[in-house]
Amino acid sequence: MRFLMFLSDALIPILVFYIVGFGILMKKNVYDDFLKGAKEGIQTVVGILPTLVGLMVAVGILRASGLLDFISTTCMGWTKHIGIPSELIPIAIVKMFSSSAATGLLVDLYKEAGCDSFVGMAASVMLSCTETIFYTMSIYFMSVKVRKTGFTLPGALFATLAGIAASIFLAGRV
Questions:
Q1: 136-167 burial, b if ≥16 CB within 10 A, otherwise e?
Q2: CA pair distance 22, 5, nearest whole angstrom
Q3: Which Pfam families match (predicted)?
Q4: How far apart are CA 107 and CA 63, in angstroms?
Q5: What is the DSSP letter of 150?
Q6: CA-CA to 85 of 20 to 30 Å: which in 16, 19, 141, 151?
Q7: Per residue in 66-99, pLDDT tens?
Q8: With 90 as the cut, is the pLDDT of residue 22 above it?
């Protein structure tokens, strides 16, 4: 166990020294390459920052306005008929925008229902089975300048629904 802890602590410095050493052996100007990469990284951050701020504001508005609670209570009737607890609806909606905000909702759900409850287990599985659709599309597609997204959104929404269905099924089997 001590060896694994040492390896875990030493892995990143070893990797950095390996990359620098390999660059020197290949007769590259490692420092200039590092500065060029850092400059490109900062330009990428500046390019995606408005999108990140917009997504964070949208999630904040959804949580603060009570819209998620309204959607949850509105959908309660038909979600019970198909076996989806209505408590999962806000988490599923927020997860499409922000994983960290969905995790915050999950913690709130744990406080109310408990982490060993059916709803708690289903929400845990759902968070791992679904993806942050709009975050992924906006950040990744913006950084590589993809304009024609085709069937990405419908496919991602279908995959999210499949993840929700899988979470309900798996939580019921535990």
A1: ebbbeeeeeeeeeeeeeeeebeeebeebbebb
A2: 26
A3: Gate (PF07670)
A4: 14
A5: T
A6: 151
A7: 887 788 788 777 777 777 788 888 888 888 877 8
A8: yes
